[in-house]
Amino acid sequence: MPAAALLPLAPSPPHPNQRLHLSRCGASRRGFTVHTAIAIASASAAAAAAEAPPSPSPPPSPQAQTPPSKQGGSPVLGGIANTRSWSQYYGSGFSIRVPPSFDDILEPEDYNAGMTYYGDKVKPRAYAARFASPDRNELISVVIKPSNQLKITFLEAKDITDLGTLKEASKIFVPAGAKVFSARTIKVKDEEDIRTYYFYEFGLDKQHVALMATVNSGKTYIAGATAPETKWGDDGVKLRSAAVSLSVS
Questions:
Q1: Which of 14, 141, 177, 187 has the fewest Cβ atoms within 10 angstroms?
Q2: What CATH number should be reported for the domain holding residue 214?
Q3: How confident is the model at residue 244 (pLDDT cuts 50, 70, 90)?
Q4: What is the mean pLDDT of residues 180-203?
Q5: Whole-structure pTM over 0.90, yes or no?
Q6: How many degrees, rounded to 5, is the angle at CA 1 between CA 29 and CA 179?
């Protein structure tokens, strides 16, 4: 099950020859912007107009409105950090923001996976990206799977809704027995269209997981951030923000 692959698996220390391919860039397309509109009414008064009928009172200013960020109109998530200053990792068809001090722990064999040598069978890549906190207790992972491996179909999945509704797809992304804290559908405007993402946050085996998933060209991209439940209170916003920063192209 894809979600199980995102749980901690005792990662090894970084390989001495590995380099973290990160670059800083501008604002994320996933900035949750609050648009505030305040109407201001002005009334004119003249000292000589004491006998004139009073001008009608200006209409009250409407309250600031926060546009809904998910279906239903309620806030998307409990807490999201501004990740503009974070480094951005570019992988095969995706990018993700990486919190400061996190290390690239992708194993050397994972870098070579997916390549063929003289007709040898392609070795599947376990992770497309993998990062860990200095103490290795907090992990951020990206997994890419052919969508037809997650749901049997003869058609190429073009949108995550092809895998089912948010509730139906939870059977794919959330392990059995997990306690689900949150599930959301998030729509993000890309260059050409509006892309749909599914977000799940759940607990399993004393681990807390924030998971973001979407589909593009028959492939399912899954970003997961995990940490022990005892550390989620302090670092949950940071980890959730990393998972939500997943973007595909």
A1: 177
A2: 3.40.1000.10
A3: very high
A4: 94
A5: no
A6: 75
